[in-house]
Amino acid sequence: MPRQSALAGHIAPIVESLVLSVDDVHAIVQHVSAILSFVDLAVLFSFGWLLVPLARVMHSFVTSSVANKDKGFESSYAFIVADHLGQIARLALLVYACDVFVVAFEAVGYKAEIASKVFAKILYTSWLARRAQRFKRYLIGKILTKAPKNCDKIRLVDRILDGIVFALLFLKVLDYLSIETGLALGSIFAVGTTGGLIISLASQEVAKGVMSGIEMATSDRFYEGDNVHFGDGTQGYIVKMGFLRTKVRKYDSTVIDIPNTQLGGQRAINISRSKTCRVLTKLRFEYEDVQNIPKALENVKEEISKACPKLIANGKPFRAMISSFEQNYVEATVNCSFELPPTGEKFWANREEMFLAIDRGVRRSDVRYAKPIFLRDK
Question: What is d(CA 25, CA 10) in angstroms, rounded to the nearest whole number?
């Protein structure tokens, strides 16, 4: 009794089955010729590649006598209709080619009668999904022109709608496969107890990440481009917010990729949305000038008021006062608020101008800065 082998003796039959005989070629030509129509191909080719140029010529002829020529062909309804019909015709040519291949396979004994139907349904459904996305972006563009301040929220809606479209497309493709081929969704994931457990745990993590991403986006706490400080110490600019992960560019220009599950429940300060800022600094003076320090601090406030037009003098703290008597110096605190966000070039330029104004106010007075402790004995 011959021994059963895993590979030996099986290669030659497989190769022989792939080699077409003369009878197979004759059968393929006969079956393909029976369904192939050059009229069909000519019509599809004309619609696919000649309809848009023809519509352009007709549009130019019609609009040549019209006074208002501002609207171009690409913005006209004629182009939209012709372009969509052309796309449908080009997709039909792909389906036609798939039909030819299916007939050829069936001519040599392979069963592939449902492949053409499944291919056509998936192809046209995918095309409709892309058309829906294009129309959605057109509507979003119209909304943005009327409400540019809501661009972050509109971008969020755009992403959510994209996710819905892709999810519906995926489910529809699975439905086609289930109906036409009998391949049910459950059979795809039926990989045993261990595999099912792994897939279940992985899907839970993915679902948590997606829900955290949606929660962060819909909570209106921050958007892409915002400068945010998180409760775990992460600080920087939001580069990209995805459904599963968020990228943050730190102040040293490094980009950190953080799972949304780690950011969802954290406290966060959105620096970019702050309209005002506070700058607090401490000054050190010698004890010999303690009686002149109040006058010097009044000069400091006067110089700051002149140099910083964004200063908030009313409603916010604006102080320059002695705050502490230390062992080797008198400490004074200057506390100012400004109508500027606490980030960006304007903030840092205003901060520098404030420090220079403090120095001018001190130099106008008969007081001296306290020397650092390590220089006192020199």
Answer: 24
Residue 354 to residue 281: CA distance in whole angstroms: 10
What is the tens place of the pLDDT at every residue in 114-151?
888 888 989 999 999 999 888 888 888 877 777 666 66
Regarding pTM above 0.70, the answer is no
Q: How far is CA 7 from CA 12, 18, 35, in A?
A: 10, 17, 40
For residue range 238-282, list pLDDT tens digits in order: 888 877 788 999 988 899 888 888 887 788 888 888 889 999 999
> How far is the C-alpha of 314 from the C-alpha of 327, rounded, in Å?
34
Those residues whose C-beta lies under 8 Å from the C-beta of residue 90, and which sit 6 or more positions away, are 44, 48, 49
Element holding 323 (H helix, E strand): strand 319-325
For residues 298 and 160, what is the distance between their CA atoms, to the nearest angstrom? 56
Q: Which residues contact 300 (CB under 8 A, 6 or more apart)?
A: 320, 334, 357, 358, 361, 362
Q: Return d(Cα 332, Cα 284) in angstroms, integer.
A: 6
| Exposure class string for 67-80: b at 16+ Cβ within 10 A, else e | eeeeeebeebebbe
What's the CA gap between 325 and 302, in Å, rounded? 24
Say which amino acid occupies 234.
Answer: T
